[in-house]
Design goal:
With 111 residues, the protein is mostly beta strands. It is built from two helices and seven strands; from the N terminus they run E-H-E-H-E-E-E-E-E. A hairpin with a 3-residue loop joins strand 4 and strand 5. The longest helix has 8 residues. The termini are far apart.
C-alpha cells in the first residue's frame, strides 16, 4: 500500500513577488490557491482596503490613545503601513495596538 501514489499530479510551485510575500502569504506560492481565504483576522480583512484612505485608532502600552490617518499602503503579518496624505511619509503601526479602523469611501472625506 505504501507504493500506491495519488493519481493527482503535484501542484506547481513558484515564488511570490516581494509585495505578496510581505502581505503575510509567505514566499512560495502553491498551485492550490484557487480562491481567497475568508477574512478570519483583521489583517486578512484590511488587505481588501489597500489603497483607500483610512483612520486608525491605536492604544499604547501606557494606556494613551492616538489616531493616525492616511492611505493604507500595505498590510503585513503583524503591522500595517499608512502613507500620510499631507507629507507622503510612511507610517508603520503594530496590529496588536490597533483598536479600530475607519475606512473612507471617498478620498477627500478624511480630516
Amino acid at each position: 500500500m505504501d507504493e500506491v501514489k495519488s493519481a493527482l499530479p503535484e501542484p506547481p510551485r513558484s515564488f511570490r513577488t516581494p509585495e505578496e510575500a510581505m502581505s503575510g502569504k509567505g514566499a512560495v506560492r502553491s498551485g492550490q490557491e484557487k480562491y481567497e481565504r475568508w477574512p478570519y483576522s483583521l489583517e486578512d480583512y484590511l488587505k481588501s482596503f489597500v489603497g483607500m484612505p483610512v483612520r486608525v485608532g491605536c492604544v499604547l502600552p501606557n494606556g494613551r490613545y492616538f489616531e493616525k490617518a492616511g492611505k493604507l499602503a500595505t498590510v503585513g503579518t503583524n503591522f500595517i503601513a499608512l502613507r500620510s496624505t499631507g507629507t507622503g511619509d510612511l507610517i508603520l503601526l503594530d496590529l496588536a495596538a490597533v483598536k479600530g479602523v475607519t475606512v473612507s469611501e471617498t478620498p477627500g472625506s478624511q480630516s
